[in-house]
Every structure is written in C-alpha cells, then in structure tokens.
Design a protein that fits this description.
It is a single chain. This protein has four helices and eight strands; from the N terminus they run αββαβαβββββα. It is of the alpha+beta class and 197 residues long. The N terminus and C terminus are likely disordered. The strands form two sheets. It has a five-stranded antiparallel sheet with strand order 7-6-5-4-8. Strands 1-2-3 form a three-stranded mixed sheet.
Amino acid sequence: MAQQRDRRVGGSRDAGARDAGAHRERLRKVVEPVVVAAGYDLEDLDVSRVGRRHLLRVAVDSDKGVDLDAVAEVSRAVSAALDEAEAAGDELIAGEYELEVGSRGVDRPLTEPRHWRRNRTRLVLVEVAGKPVTGRVTAVTETGVTLDVEGAAQTVAFADLGPGKVQVEMKRLAELPEDLDEDDDLDDDDEEGEDEA
C-alpha cells in the first residue's frame, strides 16, 4: 500500500512540473511578442511565490544593451498585455503579483550566439572539450567564437562550447585617465544588466 501511495505522490509531482511548464509557456506566449515588438530578446521568464503574492521576473536583452528607460517602457507594455489576457479570461497568475523587468545581467551563462556577440571584449570562463578555459572574446561569427587565451587566438565552434561565464574585472586605479570627471561613468558596459524596474 505504501508503494502505491509513493507512486501517486511521485506522479502528482510530475504532473505539477508539467503544469508549471505549461503555465510558464502560456505566460511566455503573452510576454514574448511584447518584448520582441519593443526591440528586445526575452532571455528568461520566472514566476515564484513571495508570501501571499507572486513575483514575475522578466529578463530582456538587446545588441544595444538595456537602459532604465527601456526597462520601464517594456515593463508597462508587459503589464498591459497581462491585463488584456486576464480581461479576456485567461488567468495567467492567480491573485496579486509583482512584475520585475530587468536586463539579463552578467551572472547568467552565455549559451546563445547572441550572448557571445554581446560580450565581445569580455573575459570569460568556459568549458572547451571538457576543460575549463579562461579567455577574452575577440571575435564572434555565425559558427563560433575566437578567444584570446594567454595571447594565443583559439577559435571554438558553438557546438564545442559549454555555457560561458563572464568574469568580472576590476580596473586598476593607475589605468584610469587622470582627467576622469567624478560624474563620468567608469565603464558603461559594466553598468548594463544592473537596471531593474
């Protein structure tokens, strides 16, 4: 009897995972067209429970980066699309929810060719043929990536790359220009990915 109970519990977990996957896909069908229409790629979509509310996180990116104004604009458009879907009778998120739209950030793995292209000149850690390699992305083509590994160019096909991880580099004070104004941004690229609505 206990075995049957265990099986039923396992089955309900599988059904719950399938339901969660189907629910996420329904959300994606509403959110993605809005994000694409605004000129961005939908990088990730996640729904989690926070107390009595749900939190819907939407990560977006583009070749030109994502700034605070863009995040606010996309957030309003996504919110309107979700409201429209709810009004049409499609309950996508039960009860109250909070919408959080932001860029993909530097902590997410590089898995798509566009991720590599958008991180040209950055130092990355990636597995190549089962071995960890640290190198700077110097070029990205339709078929692969060229890394500068300790001064030597190494070209790797996308199929042979594991997920890459951007390595955060701290600039040395001596490398900064002497006439840098306090209000100037030190590195606009590093500011990308930190904006959230």
